Every structure is written in structure tokens, then in C-alpha cells.
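Internal QA ticket QA-208
Title: Verify multi-chain structure generation after dependency bump
Assignee: T.L.

Test input:
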Amino acid sequence: MTYRSIKGTRDILPSESWKWQRVEERIRKVMERFNYKEIRTPLFEQTSLFSRSIGELTDLVSKEMYTFEDRSGESITLRPEMTASVVRAYIQHNLGKQLPLVKLYYLGPAFRQERPQAGRLRQFHQFGAEAIGSANPDLDAEMISLSLAIYEELGVKEPLLKINSVGCQNCRPAYMKVLIKALEKIRHELSPESQHRLGVNPLRILDSKLEQDQRATSGVPLMRDHLCPDCAAHYKSVKERLSALGYKFEEDGRLVRGLDYYTKTAFEVISRQLGAQDALAGGGRYDLLVKELGGEATPGIGFAAGMERLMMVLGKNSPSDQEEGTTIFIATVDRKSQDWAMKHALELRRQGVSVELDYLGRSLKAQMREADRQRARYVLIIGENELEARRATLKDMKSGAQETTTFEEIFKRVVSSSKA
RNA sequence: GUGUCCAUAGUUCAGUCGGUCAGAACGCCAGGUUGUGGCCCUGGAGGUCGAGGGUUCGAGUCCCUCUGGACACCCCA
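Actual output:
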């Protein structure tokens, strides 16, 4: 038996990792244009941080977390998302005392023990942003705009924006009563699953994928029609700001977030190019979360996005550019030239040039083939004759032209072309 | 957790009613140029046909179990 990566985890091999690097770079760039600063938090936290913030009864907490006891008996959980950690750090380091509005972004792995499928892994990667310290709907618009700007920057085709308001502690409880009452009335028309959800998470029934549920709930009251004046005004403002920024969006009164901490604005970015797991990003406002986790009552908003899903969408679009090749391959023919190559490869590398040479004792022909495979811009050929004459042959792999000249001249050329 | 489908060389796949079916392409290595790439030609290495049982004179090919994978439900990024 051979070892394999654990179910739902995967290796990102060199054939792919360079693409991830490119994408991550551009994500960071956009984040920074919006003046969000990176935060890196630990991969694991105290279990209660997540259960308290996300909600004890949510599916995520009740059956999807990687929770274990460490050797001291403390309950530890691999982060299933990043918002809780970011808010924890915000409180722990009193970030709100240093700045009235804290804008943070993150990028990294998260863990959820679900059955893997297209766009869903047990170790997956998320990037996202959090802005803590303002309840201003302008900030909601900025946050949504930020998430879309990233997809725009990367050339994602037709990301679909869906928004909704999930209310607040003032209006949601009352609405829930109305909703449950309405659902009770049509209970027998609901799917068995939804009948079960009635007792656990009635909101979920609204976005059930089953035709049966959709039909049955067509006349059921929606949160957006039962918002308190404050929430209604906020929601209206967000929509106005989005329109003013030129964004198209779809109001989805059935959009629900799976995490308990959301209030008011909820949004999702969907891609039709994905499978059943079609959410590229999801987020919303969480005005109660900081207080819930022990900080001073501070409003916040954020979003999280899936890297794997992004990569899937990007893979389906442009044929994408090529990985950069090495700049120069030094081909050698014997021990002496190999010694020379080792020494000068290091020298060139110190000057910022990417250099490769042969470690398999291959023929010159094989080394040339290797250089070609690496898409080297130049091959430097060094042998007995050259060593003696303190010259080497430099071949331009694109044109095929080659010339024998002094080491100094060659290095000058290689270093300058590597900087270009 | 439930369901459906799948499992043959490094990769993508052929293998017809169970009887040379262990193959192709690409990739890899070498040679064709005893110091030179990409194209082309030639040759080579590489598989206990996911694992374990069973049916049969005989099983990649049929049956069972297991493992792994994909997708969907669920859930969500």
C-alpha cells in the first residue's frame, strides 16, 4: 500500500502552483488598491471561538469541523473559515483602538469535513476581506465592489451578484415567527427534508433546490419585506450605492447565509461556469459579532471567496499564459567545465538570474533538449576549448544564433536580459 | 451522512459475445549529428489490468466485498 493524500485534500503540483502564485499576486494587488492590509492568523483556534461565532446549531459547526483535543486536553479546531479568527485578532490586539476603521484581507487554507465534490474540498483555500468599525452602507458597497474587482481583474466571465438583507436582532425574530407560521401552514407540501428543517433552520427552506419546495414556498413572506426601518433604509442605500457604481445585481429574497453572525446585507457572487457548488464568494455584514466574541460592540462586514472555485473558472476561460522559463542553461561536457558551471551558476544566481545546469551527466544533445524543455532563453556551452580561451558559446534559443565570446560579455548580456 | 457512475502504462484512453488483449497516443530515455534543442525517423524502458475473494477448462472482460476517485444530494467558499 502506498500513501495518498487524505480524502478531500490535494497537492498543488508545479504544473499548477505557478498559476496559483499569479492569481494570488493579483488578488493581493487589488486588495491593496482598496487599502486592505494582510492579516495572517493561525490555522487552528479554540473550538469555542468558532462555535460561538458561527453558531452552535449550524451544519458547519455541528458536523463539519475538524475538532480534536490536544495533549493538554484543550479542544482545538482547524479553522473552517477565517472571519472568526480575524475578529478574534481584532479584539485581542485592540486594533480598533489604533484605527477607527480596520480593513484586513487574508489568503490561506481552511478545513471542513464534508463529502468532496466539484468545487468542494476538505482542505480548501479562501481569500477574503473584513472591514471592522463602520455601519455605513457605503462600506457594504465597497466590500461588494472589492470582491467583484478581483474577478474583474482576473477576467472572470460574467460573475453574478446576488444580494439580500437578512435583518437584524430587532426585526429578524419577529419575521421568523411569521415565516414559521406560514411554513407550518404548508408543511405537508414541503419535502421531507424541508419539513425537518422547519424545526432546525427554517430560513434554509427558502433556498431549497427542490422544485417541490420552491413551488410550495412561492407565496411565503420574505425577510426583505419585514425589515425594520433601519434595516430597510440600510438595504435601500446599499442598492443605490451599487447602482451608482454601475453594478448589476439580482435581489434574491431567498438568499440565506449559513453562518449565524450575519446581519443586514448578505451577498453572493455566483458563476454559471461552476457545477453545483457555484458560489465564488459570499459575505455580508456582521454588526453583532465583535461583541459576541467579547469585544466592544463594533459593526463589521466582510466576504470570503474560494480559491479552488476561482481556479476552476479561470481554467475554463482564457488558455492562460505560460510559466516563465529559466533564463540560462549552462551545458557542460566534462568535469572541468562542470566545475566552472557550478561556480558561475552561483554567481549569476546571486545577480538575480535563473540558471539551470545538468546533474545527470547527460550528453550535450540531451542537455540541449533539457534546456529547450525548460524554455531557457539562452544556453551557455562550455567545454575544454572554451575554458582555455576564457570564452564560451552563448546560444539564443529563440533565434538559434550563437556566438563565442568572453565570459564578461556573456554575463553582461545574460544579466541585463534577465532584468528586462 | 445518502445516492449514482467510474477504476487498464507517468498521462489520456482502446480493449467488441469471457479464449495471443496486455495495446495506442502523448510523455520519458537513447540513437539518427563521437560538442548543440524544437520538426522528423528508429529503438527502448514502463502495467501483478485498484485490492481481496468467487464463477469458469480459461477473467481487464461476469458476480461479491473492500479501497480509491468523480459527480449529485446535503452544505457552502
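Spot checks passed. Chain A has a mean pLDDT of 92.
Status: verified.
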